[in-house]
Write a structure and sequence with these properties.
Keywords (chains A, B): Amino-acid biosynthesis, Aminotransferase, Cytoplasm, Pyridoxal phosphate, Pyridoxine biosynthesis, Serine biosynthesis, Transferase
Modified residues (N6-(pyridoxal phosphate)lysine) (chains A, B): 203
CATH superfamily of the largest domain in chain A: Type I PLP-dependent aspartate aminotransferase-like (Major domain)
CATH architecture of the largest domain in chain A: 3-Layer(aba) Sandwich
Oligomer: homodimer
Number of strands of chain A: 16
Number of domains of chain A: 2
Structural class of chain A: alpha/beta
Catalytic activity (chains A, B): 4-(phosphooxy)-L-threonine + 2-oxoglutarate = (R)-3-hydroxy-2-oxo-4-phosphooxybutanoate + L-glutamate; O-phospho-L-serine + 2-oxoglutarate = 3-phosphooxypyruvate + L-glutamate
Largest sheet of chain A: 7 strands, mixed
Shape of chain A: globular
Distance between the termini of chain A: 44 Å
EC number (chains A, B): 2.6.1.52
Cofactor (chains A, B): pyridoxal 5'-phosphate
Strand content of chain A: 15-25%
Amino acid sequence: MTTPTPRPFNFSAGPAALPEEVLQTAAAEMLDWHGSGMSVMEMSHRGAEFISIYEKAERDLRRLLAVPQNYRILFMQGGGIGENAIVPLNLSRAGVVDFVLTGSWSQKSQKEAGKYATSRVAASAEASGFTEIPNPASWQIDRDAAYLHICSNETIHGIEYQQLPDLKALGADIPLVIDCSSHIASRSIDWSRVGLAFAGAQKNLGPSGLTIVIVREDLVGHALAICPSAFNYELVAKNQSMYNTPPTWGIYVAGLVFDWVLRQQEGDLTGLAAIEARNIRKAAKLYAYLDGSGFYRNTVAPTARSRMNVPFFLADESRNADFLTGAKARGLLQLKGHKSVGGMRASIYNAMPEAGVDALIDYLREFEKSAA
Amino acid sequence: MTTPTPRPFNFSAGPAALPEEVLQTAAAEMLDWHGSGMSVMEMSHRGAEFISIYEKAERDLRRLLAVPQNYRILFMQGGGIGENAIVPLNLSRAGVVDFVLTGSWSQKSQKEAGKYATSRVAASAEASGFTEIPNPASWQIDRDAAYLHICSNETIHGIEYQQLPDLKALGADIPLVIDCSSHIASRSIDWSRVGLAFAGAQKNLGPSGLTIVIVREDLVGHALAICPSAFNYELVAKNQSMYNTPPTWGIYVAGLVFDWVLRQQEGDLTGLAAIEARNIRKAAKLYAYLDGSGFYRNTVAPTARSRMNVPFFLADESRNADFLTGAKARGLLQLKGHKSVGGMRASIYNAMPEAGVDALIDYLREFEKSAA
């Protein structure tokens, strides 16, 4: 199975581009996975074939993200919005939970948790229009909170923590929960600072409908009585993510992506380190172009800018439709910004080749000239 | 993309066989759906391309099952086990809910609902070892219950309602909830008797991770305050199943399956009627062979036997492993029974060709002779 022409570059914020090699494999194995005579979609989740797919995916993700042995990796359903309820249902003990608001996603999470716990705001960047991350030294953390939740990469506002907060150093010895949906597997995670990380798969890992939860063992087993069984971390963990039928196709594709990431190379670097180096380079050149331009602007504080999601605005917003039409004609897809922010957004996840960023910059330059 | 040799017949109870044609299409479109330059997995769920896929799937399913206009079709996540909580979270109003127990699935549902409501048993076939359906005339229904829940096809015990109960005629004017995961789209549904139907997709519709909910409009909008937003029918309905990112690949594959069902023909029959006629014939010949044999037995009352899931036992259970090995060698896959019942189980969903049932019967006959 080959593509006759080069594929366009897809800047969707999610569901998002997948490595072409992964798609080729998924297509080639569609009717017969490894001589089994079955598509992965047709396999019992309890059969030897799928168990081997699941176990490799779990093992590769653990290796990729250097997940310590005392953390469980759960393959679930429900996405980030589902986890906004599922995390407090499992971890809050109906007490107090703290949030730092840096954009739409942390706002949504904070609101949803209020159904199950006393949901506090420890700090908020709302006054800035969500263009920065409040200095952790200023956070008003409840030291008795069940956990503190941040969105470590805000997909819509284009804000990313370049370093995870060290809550213990901030005087609060409570678990940190990170919603890392839109930058998981794009950079390393300092697990010594994290109690639970969750991510919808549809940005950097695979198709929508699969949700990854990585949770420290001591945080499992405290679900509220009203927690649905399908979303009870203890039941999911005890049953190797097969308490209910897991999203098997999503696990398979994510497994292909994990394998792809592990094989990446950049100079002397391999795997996640290689991907991260490439992501740094891709983001740096795009922001440098935008900052040097008189026509485009990104309004996020430079220290808080996301490597994955780059929102930007045209000086003349009446040209937005022309910009998108011209982009599509050049094979640069899905650049429209989120409706709540407006403008444009280039999501440059792991699967976006550096050539895609170069092609975008070429087009930005060309369009700027034509608009002069 | 062609398969060099005939595919084996896959009798998995779920995730289960898909029509070969659907797999061929999914493989062929993997890198470039209809000239979009994207895999369906890479499309924004809010983009024109995916919206067209979603709308066609919704329209085709409505046509296929003759779903009246006052029912909403929701594409969700969480599977049957998720819905065991999600249904009472949305419909119970924390009052009384009734269940009829006919096997493992209705038992699980009744237990889970107890977290959110007073969960009653209106009737149970447990004393029979779940080999029959209690006569509806004997059901002790609470006329003030928020709904009565049945599993209209018990995947594990192989029991199927040949006719849905008419609760009104039984003196209880309350909504009927049916878990129809393992026979949806295998036969018509009498919507005049149903308030809500739900189904995990992974038997007759597509990959696991997609859950279909079809609910009468007046039952939407009464969720408990503790219902997670992602699973609140009102929010899901108002946002055309895009309150959170839906399982886009699952919707796409299910859409291909709906299209396939609609194009089926048997004599003068088309679509669901054709599929149902074929299913009746497939099941009849398999049960006839089992009943006529001295070596195999199915213990379900003939009037309650499932057309989709046929559990059976060998007279000499010490031959079980031999039976499965021989079956696999002949390309008859995943015939092992569920661990809670034992023996064998042949799931003969829509995608199982009649030739697969014929091949199974040939093998049953051959094995019986060899065991004589």
